Amino acid sequence: MRIDVRVGAEADELRSLHQWLGADREIRRSSSLTLQEQPPEPGHMGGLLDVIQLVTDNGWSAASFVVALAAWKRTRPQDPRIEIRRGDTVIVLTQGSDAEIARVIRALETSTEDEAPGT
Q: Residue 37: helix, strand or coil by DSSP?
């Protein structure tokens, strides 16, 4: 399963979240994390960091992942908007409240259950 995570417009925030998730033993055990770039704009040498790509295995836990996102979010001086994309499903984590965390977990688990085997 592949999940893309975007954080506002700041590359530093994306790097910070990438390091945070990479330090989480549960996430590291069940997934692969990479930073992806947008293609460079015409006249520019390189692309901009755009997304964290998370590729997971069967042992992946949506709850662990979302709780780690919310915990990182609470450490930020600004309140970043986190967009989570899984296939056609886009979920936004804005407040990090318990109710919102539960909603995001349900949405990720539902999209996982709807996925055809082998995709």
A: strand
